[in-house]
Amino acid sequence: MSTTETSKTDMNMRGKIIFYEDRNFMGRHYECMSDCADMHSYMSRCHSCRVESGCFMVYDRPNYMGNQYFFRRGEYGDYMSMMGWRDSIRSCRMIPMYRGSYRMRIYERENFGGQMYEMMDDCDSIMDRYRMSDCMSCHVMDGHWLMYEHPHYRGRMMYMRPGEYRSFREMGYGGMRFMSMRRIMDSWY
User: Fold this and answer.
1) Beta-carbon-side half-sphere exposure of residue 48 (alpha carbons within 13 Å)
2) pTM listed for this prediction
3) Quick one: how far is CA 171 from the chain centroid?
4) What architecture is domain 103-188?
5) High-pLDDT (> 90) share of the chain, %
6) Fewer C-beta neighbours within 10 Å, C or N terminus of the chain?
7) Is residue 86 within a helix (H) or strand (E), and if so which, with residue range?
8) Alpha-carbon gap, residue 141 to 92, rounded angstroms
9) What is the pLDDT of residues 89-101, one digit of tens each?
């Protein structure tokens, strides 16, 4: 990691999330302060959680797969009803705090094809802003982002950290269109 990257990411900022087996913070619990690829070894089910610090993406399948949901500081006593999930959390990823510029290129087609637009701030509708009906690949240069299935930051979401994402279809999001994008800001922590 370069000096510039270290200064943009606060390495002292540790997130903490506590998962509970039952609703309303009951039953056995598991405290997590980093990524966890498979929570099944710690608990058989998870129906509520409390984020004491930081931000996390949680997934309904092991290895950061399946449906995703963003949690920031707060209490989620019955998140399954809130999200409409039938299964429980199976993995989670801590989102590092980031301070710096945000930059992402979105593409209409896979492998960075078709129309391209560079974003540096939130976009509540790519259709309204860019007249772009689909986004099938992207390149995140700076910052951490959430992409949403519908305009105005609604529907299913996907966490995007710096890197190249050549095909959302090959990542398992073939039937999903991303129509809005939001930066994960340090004020959310």
Assistant:
1) 15
2) 0.86
3) 14
4) Sandwich (2.60)
5) 68
6) N
7) none
8) 23
9) 899 999 999 999 9
